[in-house]
Structure formats: C-alpha cells, structure tokens
Amino acid sequence: MDVAVGLYVTNFVGIDETRESFEVGGYLTAKWLDPRLALPAECGFRCRRRHEPFNWNKLWTPSIESANSISHKTSQSLLTADRNGLVTYVERFDSNLSNDFDLRKFPFDTLVGGMS
C-alpha cells in the first residue's frame, strides 16, 4: 500500500554538538487509500457519515518512525477516513534525534552560494 508522508517542523531547538543530537517539534501527516473503509456506491446521501468508531485493532496503519530517534512523544493525533477510503493521519509530536555533525572544518568552513 502506498503511503504519502509529510512533515511540518514548528520548532528546531536544543542542538547539542557534544552529543550530536537535536530536538524537533512539528506535525506529521500520512495519507493512504484503504478500500475496505470505502462506503458502498449504493449508500448515496444517507450513508454520508460513518457512525461507528474505528476499531484500532482491525485497522491497518503504517509504522512510521525515524531511523535516528532517541525519543518521540506524540501529544495529539487524529485519524479520519472519507467515503472513498482515503485515510488521513495527523500527529503533533516532539522528538529528540541524533545525527553525525561534521564539525571538523568549523569555524573555518565556507558558505556555498551565500552572501559575499
């Protein structure tokens, strides 16, 4: 199943050169098509909304994770599906991530394509 993923960063703080880590906050969105959630064509207007809640144990959701995550906290999440089975997942998160910082040339590095 194809999954489209988007990331909107709202906060980028806590850069720690010694530990090679940083903190980031934002929104993660994912969309995919699950035909099992689509309403039958014969429903018409009377089946406009789904009244039963999703059963998380029976619903397929992708496993989305960062390869370099130290910690991840989800503060809010929302999962919706339209009548065609298009599922939209939105998550507000705060993460602590690690990365190799290449600081060997600092402070003598050069600015590429920048101001003169």
Chain-wise SSE layout:
Layout: E1 3-16, E2 21-33, E3 69-81, E4 86-98
Antiparallel strand pairs: 1-2, 2-4, 3-4
Give a short overview:
This protein has one domain: Neurotransmitter-gated ion-channel ligand-binding domain (Acetylcholine Binding Protein, Chain: A). The chain is 0% helix and 46% strand.
Overall geometry: elongated
Write down the overall mean pLDDT: 83
The description of the largest β-sheet is: 4 strands, antiparallel
Order of helices and strands: EEEE
CATH class: Mainly Beta
How much of the sequence lies in strands comes to over 45%
For this structure, the CATH topology is: Acetylcholine Binding Protein, Chain: A
Class by helix and strand content?
mainly beta
Number of domains: 1
Q: What would you give as the CATH superfamily?
A: Neurotransmitter-gated ion-channel ligand-binding domain
Can you characterise this structure?
The protein is mainly β and 116 residues long. It has no helices and four strands. The chain has strands at 3-16, 21-33, 69-81, 86-98. Strands 1-2-4-3 form a four-stranded antiparallel β-sheet, with no helix packed on it. A hairpin with a 4-residue loop joins strand 3 (69-81) and strand 4 (86-98). It is elongated. The mean pLDDT is 83.
Question: Characteristics of this structure?
Answer:
4 strands, 116 residues, mainly beta, single chain, Acetylcholine Binding Protein, Chain: A
